[in-house]
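User: Hello! My lab partner asked me to get a predicted holo structure for this protein. The small molecule is coenzyme A, SMILES included with the sequence. Please write out the structure tokens.
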Amino acid sequence: MRRGNLAQISLVAERVTDPETGRHLSEGEGGLLGHVMVSRVELSGYPDRVLMALAPLAVLPQHQRHGIGKRLVISAVKRCRLLGAGAVVAAGHADFYTHLGFHPAGHYGLYCHHDDVPGSFVAFELLPDYLEGLGGEVQFPDTFSELGI
Ligand SMILES: CC(C)(COP(=O)(O)OP(=O)(O)OC[C@H]1O[C@@H](n2cnc3c(N)ncnc32)[C@H](O)[C@@H]1OP(=O)(O)O)[C@@H](O)C(=O)NCCC(=O)NCCS
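Assistant: Hello! Below are the structure tokens for the protein in complex with coenzyme A.
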């Protein structure tokens, strides 16, 4: 097992209240609305660079477009920063992530095996120029492949 096989952070969203209306966005009591997991990933050739991946991230379909995904990403990124990460990466809805300030990972010369859809792999620097001049393969924990994530 490579270093970083264990999830570092697992955050859930439940019973979120809309700050403007005070209305509970969930239908039921204590219902799970969304989840994000964060794991350490490795940048091939740069073992000292601390990168973390936000994945998987999901919000229940009936609760999407209410700001829950954004809140999960912001919380996860804050925790990554506290854990010493210099950059975070994610694979999935590139439009969603770029809307939140991420850049296509190719911009930094990064790629990964989860980049099935061109442009779906994205990155965000937590420290200025942390990815500048690097590039290479971002290796996710083996668990991701084993689970087909
Ligand atoms: C992608 C996903 C997590 C977004 O969660 P969400 O709660 O619906 O997103 P939010 O409501 O927090 O959206 C935050 C902002 O992103 C925008 N946005 C949401 N989904 C978007 C998309 N697919 N494309 C572009 N922008 C998007 C919203 O309009 C919102 O913009 P605003 O802040 O200007 O109002 C959710 O659609 C989902 O769970 N999808 C299925 C699983 C998945 O694909 N996960 C990602 C890969 S792991």
